[in-house]
Design goal:
Number of strands: 14
Number of helices: 10
Bound molecules: aspartic acid
Low-confidence stretches: 1-21
CATH class of the largest domain: Alpha Beta
Oligomer: single chain
CATH superfamily of the largest domain: L-asparaginase, N-terminal domain
Radius of gyration: 22 Å
Helix content: 25-40%
């Protein structure tokens, strides 16, 4: 047989093989939709700031990207359809329970959550801390509404599904994907209000990147150091935790107001390495003595807040993430010492 006919035969074999591989042979990936810009619509295709987030349903999102079927057997579930500023603890509990139940099924390889970008990092951390599975959980959003020129949602969704379908994505904790790059949900944060490359893990970096629909990982699978797990399977609601932002001249009025409103814990977005005015620091010390948990984070946007004289240093948790971790810790009945260990600042 000539070289030419061998090439022809292998080309035909390849062709038959790829026709034979149906979507049903691909890894099962469930997409949970919560709303956000990825499901947003505007009257103008050039207006990327005035639009209604959470306008399109999960079926529309899936239908818009038929290529999803090339990388996975996808199914969709609508959890909510809101701008992420309206994602509540109730929605997070519903989402976490749904994902935990679904990932237990052998035919499901991973979960994708579509979410508004504004609070995405909070929900992503919540899932990272409450989903017990080695299977991939990928949280994805978009910075441009679905109706915009060069909308980033469709490609982000395709890459998120490809990541959730990837064997190499297992045992890494939850991941956040936007703009061809993915990072650990534990560390990632939104760093810019409008641009598409807004998500970064400032100190820790990305876990990998995409070319086309192929994920490239920079490291072997590993979980963030010290990441705890919280079982919320029986939790119906979470304790109130408020975040209070530090500024010059600050007094204790907002702390008192938070406690009067029912806060069971407080996060201070301190300046620098968790600094506070003398009045706030004295109040935090007094609350800590009484066993009321106050976590002190930083308003700087990145870095580690070390052990504090008053309150609990937040470690790598920024204020909004510290709030999620503190809510889960209080809900679990964690002691002061245990809470310190979660933040890595004992
Ligand atoms: N306002 C939107 C939201 O968080 C922004 C976004 O999705 O990018 O739902």
């Amino acid at each position: 047989m000539s070289l030419c006919s061998i090439r022809l035969l292998s080309a035909i074999a390849l062709c038959i093989a790829s026709f034979g591989a149906s979507a049903a042979d691909k890894p099962g990936v469930v997409i949970y939709a919560t709303g956000g810009t990825i499901a947003g619509a505007s009257k103008s295709n050039t207006d990327t700031t005035n639009y209604t987030a959470g306008s399109l349903g999960i079926d529309v999102l899936i239908k818009a990207v038929p290529e999803l079927n090339d990388v996975a057997t996808v199914s969709g579930e609508q959890i909510s359809n809101v701008s992420s500023s309206n994602v509540s603890s109730a929605i997070l509990l519903k989402l976490s329970k749904a994902i935990n139940a679904k990932l237990a099924a052998p035919d499901i390889h991973g979960a994708v959550v579509t979410h508004g970008t504004d609070t995405l990092e909070e929900s992503a951390l919540f899932l990272d801390l409450t989903v017990k599975s080695s299977k991939p959980v990928v949280i994805v959003g978009a910075m441009r509404p679905a109706t915009a020129i060069s909308a980033d949602g469709p490609m982000n969704l395709l890459e998120a599904v490809a990541l959730a379908a990837s064997k190499d994505a297992e045992n890494r904790g939850a991941m956040v994907l936007l703009n061809d790059r993915f990072a650990s949900a534990y560390y990632v944060t939104k760093t810019n209000s409008t641009v598409v490359d807004t998500f970064r893990a400032v100190e820790q970096g990305y876990l990998g990147m995409f070319t086309g629909t192929v994920p490239h990982f920079y490291y072997e699978a590993a979980k963030p150091v010290g990441k705890p797990f919280f079982d919320v399977s029986k939790t119906e609601s979470l304790p109130r935790v408020d975040v209070i932002y530090t500024y010059e001249d600050q007094d204790i009025a907002l702390i008192d107001a938070a406690i009067a409103a029912g806060a069971k814990g407080i996060v201070i977005a301190g300046s620098g390495n968790g600094a506070m005015t003398a009045a706030v620091k004295a109040k935090v010390a007094e609350l800590s003595k009484k066993g009321f948990p106050v976590v002190v984070s930083t308003r700087t946007g990145s870095g580690f807040v070390s052990k504090k004289e008053a309150g609990i240093g937040s470690g790598f948790m920024n204020p909004q993430k510290a709030r999620i971790l503190l809510m889960l810790a209080i809900n679990d009945g964690a002691s002061d010492e245990k809470i310190r260990s979660y933040f890595g600042t004992f």
